[in-house]
Amino acid sequence: MIVEILTVFPNLFASVFSETILHRALEQELLTVHLVDLRGFARGGYVDDYPFSGGPGMVIKSQVVAEALASLPADPRPFRVFLTPQGMRFTQAMARSLAGKDRLQLLCGRYEGVDQRVIDDLFDLEVSLGDFVLSGGEIPAMAVVDAVTRLLPGALGNQASVTEETFENTLLKGPVYTRPRTYADREVPAVLVDGNSKLQKAWRREQEERCTRERRPDLLRKG
C-alpha cells in the first residue's frame, strides 16, 4: 500500500514510522509512505489566509492543497481522505475498507480548517477520530495509518490477532491476563488455566459481552 500524507508539519511523523508495526511494514515493503510538506506549495510564504466573513484563525488555501496533490503521480488512482473534526467518525469497519485500497492520500487539517472547495472537488471522504478537537490532523493521520496497516496481510506476526480484536465482531475485547498466576493476592480466573479450550472460548465471549454492555451498549444495539 502507498500512503501519501499532506501536512504542514511532516517532522511530527518521524518517530511514528521508526518503531513497531509501522516500521516493520515499511521494512517488509508492505507499506510505502511519502510525506508532502504543504509549505512547499505556498505562494508568498503562507499556506493559509483569513476566512471570509471574519472569525478567528486562518484557513489553508485551496491552491496549496490542489498543487500539492498535482505534484504526485496520478496512478494508481488514490483514495483521498481529509482528517477533520467535522468528518465521519473513524471505525474499524472504515479501517478495513481503507485497507483494501492500493493508495491513500491523507490531508491533515490545521488552524481553522481547509477551504471547502478543494475538499468538495478532490477528496473522497472526511474523517474524524471522535467527538473532540485536536490541534491538527497529524495525530488522526497516524491513527488511521496504524489501524489500516495492521490489517494488511503479513503486517502482524500472528494474523489471528486481527480477527480477535475489539470491534471486529461489534464487541469490545474482554480482559486478558499473563504470569504470574497470583498478583497482589488476586488470581487469574481458573477457567483460563484449566486447559479446557471450549470453556475458555465461552468465558471470553461472556466477558466481551459484559464489557460491551457496561462500557459501550451502543455497540450491542448496532450488532
CATH class division of the largest domain: Alpha Beta
Total helical elements? 8
- Biggest pleated sheet: 5 strands, parallel
**CA(first)-CA(last) distance:** 30 Å
Summarize the amount of helix as a percent range: 25-40%
Order of helices and strands: EHEEEHEHEHEHHEEHH
Low-confidence runs of at least 5 consecutive residues: none
Q: Strand-residue fraction?
A: 15-25%
Count of the separate structural domains: 2
Strand order of the largest sheet: 2-1-6-5-7
If classified by CATH, what would the architecture of the largest domain be? Answer: 3-Layer(aba) Sandwich
Give me the CATH superfamily of the largest domain: SPOUT methyltransferase, trefoil knot domain
| Principal-axis shape | elongated
Enter the CATH topology name of the largest domain. Alpha/beta knot
Number of strands: 9
State Rg.
21 Å
Mean pLDDT: 93
Content-based structural category: alpha/beta
